[in-house]
Amino acid sequence: MKEFDIQPVDTNLSESIQQKIDNLNKPKGALGRLESLAHQICLVQQTLRPTLTHPCHLLMGGDHGIEREKVSVSPREVTWQQMVNFTHGGGGVNMFCRQHGFHLRIIDMGVDYDLSQVTGIENHKVDWGTANFLHTPAMTEEQYWQAINTGATLVDECAEEGCNILCIGEMGIANTSPSSIWMSLFGHLPLEECVGAGAGLNDEGIRHKYYILKESVEHFNEWLQHQSVEDQREKARLTVRYFGGFEMVGAIGAMLRAAERHMLVMVDGFIMSACMLAASQLYPSILDYAIFGHCGDESGHQRMLSLMNAQPLLHLGMRLGEGTGALCAYPIIESAVRMVNEMNNFDNAHITKYF
């Protein structure tokens, strides 16, 4: 069992950082979003000369009991088939990790298939998929903490290799279902406004998904009345445990540990945004460390981002998952760091500062 110590970033350097950015040989604010991004990175790293070292991408896979209720157009075997495909280098995530120099780690958190003999997949299986949360909590308390601690340990291993910027992706058929529920419960939004097509449901499929998730939330509310809820953090933890997938809870553990270690956390699309939203319910200061890479086309993603006052770097209409949207945003993060480190200032360039 692990609690985290996540502090808000120290803002004492903020004025010095802004002065450095404003004194670069450009009109004030002329590099727009790069400037605010550079400011955030400097604050997280507590330096005027930030660096990006040994970027790592954790791709976590897990299956969901709720898939049995036909809430996804894709069958559950696609989860393990794609996990194997990633080991062959054939996924979108593989391509972008190669392009941007990320160390890709493929992790079985709870896939309903024996992947233990597949070279390239790390076996951290909590169970063979979660339970069906239409009827019962998706995982036990012990399984919840196992997933959280596994995610945290993976981050420690990356940090020991020199990583200071982390990206996380997921592979898990039906994981838009818990994401939609978290968005509704944590954002205090009507569930109907949070349920979308996932991997490609038609209108009838979306209606069926909504009614299954609505009934699941009703059962959760009944279950919650019999639990010992001491405070809002405990209520959030129970909500995460009741609906989450092992890959999602593992991702939350990784996000929390990365923030605790003052690492940058890149956030991908709808699923990973839901995980960051859940993490922020547990430890609100985690948002200081988050860089939202991409706003996808999943229904409600922009609204979910607004719950965290998040400004994504890209909106490319992607909805692949795997962390691909965040990976595509990495060159922008790198440009922000290069700007603050490599651009000349007015004095050294002998240019009149006119503001």
Characterize the main sheet. Answer: 6 strands, parallel
Any low-confidence stretches, pLDDT <50, length ≥5? none
Question: Span between N and C termini?
Answer: 54 Å
DSSP strand content: 5-15%
The DSSP helix count reads 14
Instruction: Give the tally of β-strands.
Output: 6
- Coarse shape: globular
Order of helices and strands: HHEHHEEHEHHHHEHEHHHH
Radius of gyration: 21 Å
The structural class is alpha/beta
Helicity level, as a percent range?
Answer: 40-55%
Mean pLDDT score, rounded?
94
Major sheet: arrangement of strands? 3-2-1-4-5-6
Short description:
This protein has about 350 residues and is an alpha/beta fold. The protein has helices at about 15-20, 35-45, 75-85, 90-100, 140-160, 175-185, 205-225, 230-245, 245-260, 270-280, 300-305, 325-330, 330-340, 345-350; strands at about 55-60, 105-110, 120-125, 165-170, 265, 290.
